[in-house]
Design a protein that fits this description.
Layout (H helix, E strand, L loop, with lengths): L1 H13 L3 E2 L6 E2 L4 E2 L4 E2 L4 E3 L3 E2 L4 E2 L4 E3 L2 E2 L4 E2 L3 E3 L2 E2 L4 E2 L4 E2 L4 E2 L4 E2 L4 E3 L2 E2 L4 E2 L4 E3 L1 E3 L4 E2 L4 E3 L9 E3 L4 E2 L4 E3 L2 E3 L4 E2 L4 E2 L7 E5 L2 E6 L2
Parallel strand pairs: 1-4, 2-5, 3-6, 4-7, 5-8, 6-9, 7-10, 8-11, 9-12, 10-13, 11-14, 12-15, 13-16, 14-17, 15-18, 16-19, 17-20, 18-21, 19-22, 21-24, 22-25, 23-26, 24-27, 25-28, 26-29, 28-30
Antiparallel strand pairs: 30-31
Length: 213
């Protein structure tokens, strides 16, 4: 196995991939890598993962059956059966689970987790948040500590968030629920009903207080 691993790593280095410490990088035979990508120590690329060109992967990153676009950066994170389009930044300590799809320009910060969800172009999700069974529109900001409460004890429910929405820190979105374009939630809100476009929802439970400006 050690001999095969060295052969695989040499093949990709000759194809234009940079490895800071090849002895600590593990790449399975079904993986594909683009040129000008850099792999830092303790990177594991498994299954049928595809890594684009110009990426910066690691250190301490695990990718299994992931589809990674060009010019992406992943730091100390787990990517499992997930897709990242071009120019996405993930980590450190993020977790993309099965069905996660991050569109171009998404930023997913430390301790963020995404499962069975789509984050549209330019979405920012800073840290300490969980997004599950959700569809999030472009340029939306997800505040720290935001949770999609997608499981009601019997089934998973979906959350739909429009474009240019601002989700305040520690917001709980109790699915099924829809937030319209340009809507806002206050910090610490528990949102249990749909929020119209251009509206502000605040409180526990959240109520529509006023039209946002």
């Amino acid at each position: 196995e050690s001999i095969l691993r060295r052969r695989i790593n040499r093949h990709w280095m000759e194809a234009g991939v940079t490895m800071i410490d090849p002895s600590t990088v593990y790449i399975e035979s079904g993986v594909s890598l683009g040129p000008d990508t850099t792999l830092w120590p303790n990177v594991q690329l498994l299954g049928s993962s595809v890594i684009g060109s110009g990426c910066d992967i690691g250190p301490n990153t695990y990718v299994r059956d992931g589809l990674i676009g060009d010019r992406c950066t992943i730091t100390a994170s787990f990517i499992e059966e997930a897709r990242m389009e071009d120019d996405v930044h993930v980590g450190p300590y993020a977790h993309l689970r099965k069905g996660a799809h991050l569109a171009s320009g998404v930023h997913l910060g430390n301790f963020g987790e995404v499962k069975e969800s789509y984050l549209g172009p330019g979405v920012k999700m800073g840290h300490f948040s969980y997004i599950g069974n959700a569809h999030i529109g472009a340029k939306t900001n997800i505040g720290a500590g935001t949770i999609t409460c997608n499981y009601d004890g019997e089934k998973k429910n979906s959350t739909t968030i429009g474009e240019d929405v601002f989700i305040g820190s520690d917001t709980m979105l109790v699915a099924p629920i829809t937030l319209g374009d340009r809507s806002r939630t206050g910090a610490g809100s528990v949102v249990t009903k749909d929020v119209p476009a251009d509206s502000l929802a605040v409180g526990v439970p959240a109520r529509i207080r006023k039209k946002s400006t």
